[in-house]
Design goal:
The protein is an alpha/beta fold and 135 residues long. It is built from 5 helices and 5 strands, in the order βαβαβαβαβα.
Length: 135
């Protein structure tokens, strides 16, 4: 994948972060990890990130609220929601409004994760080239 691609994964479950970290390592993608939305926001202040993969259900805030804030502050970042349980109406609305690029169910297949990241990376590059409205 692209050398310039940087992913931030946000999940309160350590084993999920470790699994995503192994995947990114194997794909040679730089990855940052955060166990909460607050920690992720602090990282975003100082780190380059192109794609965020965030859990939907987290203790202090849900992933859609977090990704909505990211959309307002860093609209160029491509946002993906990850969850085993999800409120379909809220996610559908977020997808339609462009607040979230995609949804990845838990558990995911490696090929699904890879395809979603490739599609997100392609969208990011398109946004940068066209300087249009980010997804």
């Amino acid at each position: 994948m692209s050398e310039t691609l940087h992913i931030l994964c946000v999940d309160d479950e350590e084993h999920i972060l470790k699994t995503l970290e192994r995947f990114c390592h194997n794909e040679d993608i730089p990855m940052l990890a955060a166990s909460s939305a607050a920690e992720a926001l602090k990282l975003l202040e100082n780190k380059q990130v192109n794609i965020i993969i965030s859990d939907y259900q987290m203790p202090e805030t849900d992933g859609l609220v977090f990704l909505n804030e990211v959309s307002c502050r860093w609209p160029e970042i491509i946002r993906i929601i990850l969850s085993g349980f999800i409120e379909t109406t809220a996610v559908t609305q977020a997808l339609q409004e462009g607040k979230v690029f995609g949804f990845l169910p838990k558990p995911w297949q490696r090929s699904e994760l890879k395809s979603m990241i490739q599609a997100a990376a392609a969208q990011y590059q398109t946004n940068i080239r066209t300087k249009g409205t980010p997804s």
